[in-house]
Amino acid sequence: MSVPIERSHWSAAIPAAAARLGVLTWLAMSLTFAGWFLLDTLRVVWGPIDRRVPFYDLAAVVESPVRLFTGIDGHRGFTTILFIVLCCLTLLTPFLPHLWRNRFAWLTWLAPLALMLVAAYLLHSRTSDEITPGPMGLADTIANDVRHIAKHVFHSARESVARKVTFASGGYLAAIGALYLAARGVYGFRSFRK
């Protein structure tokens, strides 16, 4: 039989948890928030194209990597909203060990770093997919040569494009904040005592 939690308990527990977080944790959470929502994470400069992409727009870019060059305006949809909600929930994970006294609650502090790594992996895998045509059913040498040339051209173009995408200031700030939170979470996990 579960005992219902009184409303006054939660209204007192959340401010108490916020007070126990500490200045460095608040600073790390603020850096991560600023890096994800206020500053740009990626910058693309290629000829006349100069695009900047904040972290919360990465869901739209992962859906279609060409948006790095064409822009995101008009392409934000339900996926972007879900990703923003996920980002916000991830930023609240440092409260969990102070609300739920369990050793494994400290591992939730790794969530911001894990989210950044998963987003980077998905973006990298989507942009490095082979765009070369598959076998056409032709066994002759000319078709194989054309496929080989196309593969070489696409590979060279992809490498050229990859050099035009750089990490912007928001990415660095969020990475610093997320790395601190991850280190603090591992420390809390290892030194946990009931």
- Report the strand count: 3
SS element count, helices: 9
Largest sheet: 3 strands, antiparallel
Give the mean pLDDT. Answer: 77
Order of helices and strands: HHEEHHHHHHEH
The total domain count is 1
Strand residues, percent: 5-15%
- Radius of gyration, in Å, reads 22 Å
Task: Report on the architecture of this protein.
Residues 1-8 and 130-134 have low confidence and may be disordered. The protein has a three-stranded antiparallel sheet with strand order 2-1-3. With 194 residues, the protein is mainly α. The chain has one domain. It is elongated, with a radius of gyration of 22 Å. The chain has nine helices and three strands, in the order H-H-E-E-H-H-H-H-H-H-E-H. It has helices at 7-20, 23-38, 58-63, 67-70, 78-91, 96-99, 111-127, 141-162, 169-190, and strands at residues 42-46, 49-53, 165-167. Helix 2 (23-38) packs antiparallel against helix 9 and helix 7 packs across helix 9. The chain starts with 6 loop residues before the first helix and ends with a helix.
